[in-house]
Design brief:
This protein is of the alpha+beta class and 763 residues long. Helices cover 64% and strands 7% of the residues. A four-stranded antiparallel sheet has the order 3-4-2-5, with helices on both faces. A four-stranded antiparallel sheet has the order 8-9-7-10, with helices on both faces. A two-stranded antiparallel ribbon has the order 1-12. Strand 8 (482-486) and strand 9 (491-496) form a beta hairpin.
């Protein structure tokens, strides 16, 4: 290769946590690897021993819904898995409920479900008066025996029995619906959907990394780091769950975030180490420079992402708190692993990191190299145009993103109904619609959980009956209103089918009538009585209200703390402000795409989202937190490289070009992985998962291209030296910029101990 310049072979002087951690790991590589393996094993062992405590239903919501569930739990009651069989006659001339053939069908249904031995409390529609106003529909109602949480696993014989009765009565439509039957149907249809997406994510990431690095070993390193971070975090979640309960949803979100940041951080480090070696530096010097520069960027990025994830803790919703804490932990673990065990592995592997090279991929990669430092010819061309006319680039890019974000101003959020979530792909969804049409609100009745000192007292009994009467007379319900009393527990549960049925807006008006008019006039007049109203409609409304109420504190916390971190880590007021503005623009564009596709239906057929008409209520806040964190990931990496080039004496404009172009490859690779993984979730059948996948994929794509490749360099080029403006009145703040610095001054060699490699200490 020829003689290497002596200055390039000397180890650089480095300072800071990331640099020192990388240096120690490179010198004590076997110790670093052993400690990491022991940490992962210990975390898993402790997690398995502790077991995971999951979020209870009563912790999911505050307000009335939460109070209702707590009353049921404290009383030791379990809401049984209720099922209904809809017997329906189509057409004006069809049999009505009083006809012999209709009665025969009802009798057959009752006998068939009782014969399975899996049901109890079977009620005839003629007893419960569950016959529709037109006489063409009736409901046979019953409860599943045993634990309601496992009812979906035992409902198959009942479904088979009902199907046989349906086959014997060709003139009628006989269908079963309820919590257990819907649970089984959805598990059969979509149960493996989410798991398949999770398992597909790793092979997809590995395939893209193979193309990015062109070598098998180099591609396996990021995946190995991400997977070990995820495994360790799964164990830690079990321990932490005894303080903050976790959930399956939190576990899935943790997996996604862990894979994303774990691969990203490893990419940042590995690419920089390879770049320095390509310049002619020896392996140790290249590793130390990567530790001082990319290592620092990883620490700053990791802390920023952790702050963003911590924003979920301010929602007051147990599921969100679990997701936030789980994501925060996996980011912290991946960050620590990246600056400790990764340098040790790179030091151990040396040139073997290039093993398993793919010649065809490497030829493609070389064809895109247009300059020094592995710069991308494509991004060099884009940057040249942007820096030549920064005002034009700024106006065009910002205008395009503002236009994309515009639909978000009319965003409508709600908990999706069954037909919105699954469409008409399943027969049970059509059964749900027919049931709501015949018995408005019957599919999802409101439940009033009444707690009294003595539920059998005369005033309480009168209030219950008066509530039943006024629920119908007020127009909130068309009945029947059922009351089940648990005397020993002093609890009563009132089922109230709401007028409006599956129409969320109309059903909420009925709910408000119950809560604000009927309840105060009846149960509210009896001293010592609690009567919170729960149910699907109430849960959706209260959840939406709570999400809306938590938007301001979450947004404020994330934005303010991210701003402070940028200010401290780059010591520039300008960089801190532009970081926040650009990230908010990226999030706004993602919101606009979501609204346009899923609410207005623009291009909805391309992703299988026709007729949804709304954004699921939890998604905007969830996307903000996740996207703000992941956007900062790229931003810190790019701006760190720009600032590093500026500190080396380049002009601001030259530093911008150098920083963006030299990071373009790793940012593009990381973004392609994230877009591909998130796009997998965009193919799932459930609209909520589809919305999440499309929103995340679109936002990451916009962020890695328009934001980082066009807007960021255009804004920084226009600001010039003002990019580094730091007012004198802020200079009392701690200086956290030193990690990134390094030089080529000779290093003093400390005496070797125990046969170890000599330690070099910066002068």
């Amino acid at each position: 290769m020829g003689r290497v310049d002596a200055a390039r072979t000397r180890e650089p002087r480095v300072r800071g946590v990331a640099a020192r951690a990388g240096g120690w790991s490179a010198r004590h590589r076997w110790a670093a690897v052993t400690i990491w393996v022991l940490f992962v094993a210990l975390a898993m062992g402790l997690g398995s021993a502790a077991g995971r405590v999951d979020v209870k239903e009563s912790d999911q919501m505050s307000g009335e819904v939460g109070r209702a569930v707590r009353i049921i739990e404290d009383a030791g009651l379990k809401d049984p898995a209720g099922e209904s069989v809809l017997i329906h006659a189509e057409g004006e001339d069809a049999a009505v409920a009083g006809s012999p053939e209709f009665r025969a069908a009802v009798k057959d249904v009752i006998e068939a479900v009782q014969a399975t031995g899996e049901v109890t409390a079977v009620t005839s529609p003629y007893t419960s008066k569950s016959v529709s106003a037109d006489g063409h529909s009736a409901l046979v109602q019953f409860e599943m025996r045993g634990d309601p949480e496992t009812a979906s696993e035992r409902v198959a014989p009942v479904l088979d029995a009902v199907a046989k009765v349906d086959g014997a009565h060709k003139e009628l439509l006989i269908e079963e619906i309820g919590g257990a039957s819907m649970g089984k149907t959805f598990d059969d249809a979509f149960g493996s959907d989410f798991q398949r997406a999770e398992f597909s994510a790793v092979p997809v990431a590995l395939g893209i990394l193979l193309i990015a690095f062109g070598a098998l070993v180099a591609a396996l390193l990021p995946v190995a780091l991400a997977l070990t971070a995820i495994i360790a975090t799964m164990g830690l979640m079990g321990v932490v769950s005894h303080l903050q309960p976790m959930s399956d949803t939190a576990n899935s979100v943790m997996l996604l975030v862990g894979l994303a940041v774990g691969v990203d951080y490893c990419l940042f480090y590995l690419r920089r180490e390879r770049e320095e070696r390509a310049k002619g530096r020896d392996a140790r010097t290249a590793l130390m420079i990567a530790a001082a520069t990319s290592g620092r960027a990883i620490v700053v990025s990791g802390v920023t992402v952790c702050v963003a994830m911590a924003g979920m803790l301010f929602t007051g919703i147990a599921e969100f708190e679990a997701m936030g804490l789980a994501s925060l932990m996996v980011v912290a673990v991946a960050m620590v692993g990246s600056v400790t065990v990764l340098p040790a592995l790179l030091s151990l592997l040396g040139e073997r990191v290039e093993k398993g090279r793919l010649p065809f991929v490497n030829r493609l990669k070389r064809s895109d190299r247009g300059g020094a430092d592995g710069e991308s010819r494509v991004w060099r061309a884009v940057l040249t145009a942007v820096l030549r006319r920064p005002w034009t680039a700024l106006v065009v890019a910002a205008g395009a993103l503002a236009a994309i974000a515009l639909p978000a101003l009319g965003m409508h959020t709600q908990n999706l109904t069954l037909d919105q979530e699954f469409g008409d792909s399943l027969p049970i969804v059509r059964t749900y619609d027919r049931l709501n049409e015949a018995f408005p609100g019957g599919a999802d009745p409101a439940q009033v959980v009444v707690k009294a000192d003595d539920i059998g007292a005369a005033p309480v009994r009168r209030a219950l009956e008066e509530f039943r009467r006024q629920a119908v007379s007020s127009g909130a319900s068309k009945g029947p209103v059922d009351i089940v009393t648990h005397d020993a527990e002093n609890v009563a549960v009132i089922d109230v089918p709401l007028v409006g049925g599956s129409d969320q807006a109309k059903a909420e008006k009925s709910l408000d009538l119950l809560r604000d008019t009927v309840r105060p006039a009846t149960l509210g007049k009896v001293a010592g009585v609690e009567a919170p109203v729960t149910g699907q409609v109430a849960g959706s409304k209260d959840f939406n209200d709570q999400i809306v109420g938590s938007v301001v504190p979450v947004f404020a916390f994330v934005v303010v703390f991210a701003f402070l971190l940028m200010l401290l880590c780059f010591r520039s007021l300008t960089v801190a402000i532009t970081s926040i503005v650009l990230n908010l623009l990226s999030v706004g564009a993602a919101y606009g795409i979501l609204t346009a596709v899923f609410q207005h239906g623009w291009g909805a057929s391309l992703v299988g989202a026709e007729g949804v008409g709304a954004i699921i209520s939890w998604l905007p806040l969830f996307l903000f937190v996740i996207l703000f964190g992941l956007s900062m990931d790229y931003h810190v990496f790019v701006v760190s490289r720009i600032r590093e080039a500026r500190l080396q004496g380049r002009t601001t404009r030259d530093a911008i070009a150098h920083g963006v172009v030299t990071t373009a490859g790793v940012v593009t690779s990381a973004a392609v992985i994230m877009v591909a993984v998130f796009a997998i979730f965009g193919t799932l059948s459930m609209q909520s998962m589809k919305q999440m996948g499309v929103g995340l994929a679109a936002a990451v794509l916009i962020d890695a291209t328009i934001i980082r490749g066009v807007l960021l360099p255009a804004v920084m080029a226009l600001l010039g030296e003002r990019n580094w403006y730091f007012p004198t009145w802020l200079r009392w703040l701690p200086d956290m910029t030193h990690d990134e610095s390094y030089d080529d001054e000779p290093a003093v060699t400390a005496p070797a101990r125990g046969g170890e490699e000599p330690e070099r200490v910066g002068v």
